[in-house]
Write a structure and sequence with these properties.
Strand content: 25-35%
Bound molecules: zinc ion
Number of strands: 17
Structural class: alpha/beta
Length: 343
Amino acid sequence: MEKMRAMVLSKCAPIETNPLKLTIIDKHEIKKPNEILVKIEACGVCHSQLHGIEGDWKDIGIPPTLPTVPGHEVVGRIVKIGSNVTKFKIGDRVGITPLLEACKKCQYCKEGKEQLCESSIITGESLRGGYAEYITISEDFATRVPDKMKPEYAAPLFCAGITAYKAVKAAEPQLHKKIGIFGIGGVGHMAIQFAKLEGCNVIAFSRSKNHLEIAKRLGAINIMTFSDNQDLPDKIKEKYGMLDAAIVFAPADIVTDVAIKSVKKGGLIVIAVVGKNPTFFAFDEKTIRGTVIGSTKDMEQVIKICDENNFEVITETYQLEDANQVLKMLKESKIKARAVLIP
Ligand SMILES: [Zn+2]
Ligand SMILES: [Zn+2]
C-alpha cells in the first residue's frame, strides 16, 4: 500500500495543545469506477475546522468519527481516474466542497439541493479530508477549476466562496438594496463582492479594524465596528436607516440578534452559521432564512463569476505541517481572511 502525509486528529482538544499530528497514513486509492484520485495542491483553513477540532460541535455530531483528516476546501490535479469517469481526464485541475458525496436518489438530490441530502458524506469528517496529499471523490462532486486559476486562489472558493454566494442569493439581492453583512473574514470578504456585483449597497460589520478596511476596499459603501453594546441596532438605524436585509457569518448569537433588530419590518435575515434560536418577533413579518454551502451547480457558478469578474480572494499560504499554528492564529483573529495549506 502506498502512503501519504496527513494531519490527523485522534482526539478533540484545544488547538493550543497541537491536536493535529503529522502522520503517514495509507494513500487513498480509487475504489469505485466513477471516482477520481486527486493530488492536493491547496486546502483552505475554514473556521468550522476549529470548532470541530476543539469539540465545540460534539452536540451536533461533528466530528462524527475519529480519527479524521480535517479540511474541506480542496483543490488539486487528477492523477488517476476510474474506468467509468467521463467528465474529467488525468491532469485536470478540480476542486472539492464540504459535500464529498450525496445519494443522488432522494428528493433533495433530485431537486438539485444535494447539500441537504440526509445520507451525504462531508469532506474532512473521515480520513478523506484536505489536510493531506491525496483524496478520492466521485466525479459528480468535483468541480473543474480553470488552469489559469492558482490553487491558493481557488481553494477558498470551495467553502467560503460558495457559502458567500449562496447566502447573498438567499438575501434576494437587487439594485440599491441595503444589505448588512455581519462578520468579514474568509466568507464575508467574498460576500461583499457577490452583493456588490448585484448592485446592492453593502454595510459591513466586524469587530476587527483590519477586516473593516478590507471591506471598504472591496466595495462596502459603509463600515461599522461591531460591539456588544445594547444600543447598536439604534445606532445603525440612526446612521444608515433600517437595513433591507442582513447576512450573518459571525458565529455568535448576539450578532444574529443585532442583525434581526437592524432589519426593517418585512425584511430578510440570512443566517449562514450554527447558532441557537435568536430573538424573533413574529408581528414584524421578518423572514429568517438558513443556508449551508451549496449544490454542485452553485459551485460551477461561483468559479465562473469569480473568474469573469476578477474577484479578489485574500489568502496567505502555509505548509501542511503548520496546520495547528494556523488554526491558533485563526482563533486569535490573526488571519486577514483565508489561510491555505500547501502539502
Ligand atoms: Zn468551511
Ligand atoms: Zn440524497
